[in-house]
Amino acid sequence: MTKQKKYSKTLKLDAVSLVIDQDYSPAEAGRSLGIGNMLSRWVKDH
């Protein structure tokens, strides 16, 4: 069983900002921040 990673609220907001404000794709921003594919869900929830 693997542990679920916890990401800070600040990291989530910064990552979402890259997608919404700076026109990064979720995949591109996720790769550059090292968070994988979580970003699509965060953007959708935002």
Q: What is the helix tally?
A: 3
- Overall pLDDT confidence: 88
Q: Say how many strands there are.
A: 0
Strand content: under 5%
Shape type: globular
The class by helix and strand makeup works out as: mainly alpha
| Biggest sheet statistics | none
Number of domains: 1
Order of helical and strand elements: HHH
> Which spans of ≥5 residues are poorly predicted at pLDDT below 50?
none
Helix residue percentage: 55-70%
Tell me the radius of gyration.
10 Å
Straight-line N-to-C gap: 29 Å
List descriptors:
mainly alpha, 61% helix, 46 residues
Compact description:
With 46 residues, this protein is mostly helical. Helix content is 61%, strand content 0%.
Tell me what the structure shows.
The chain has 46 residues and is mainly α. It is built from 3 helices and no strands. The chain has helices spanning 9-21, 26-33, 39-45. The radius of gyration is 10 Å and the shape is globular.
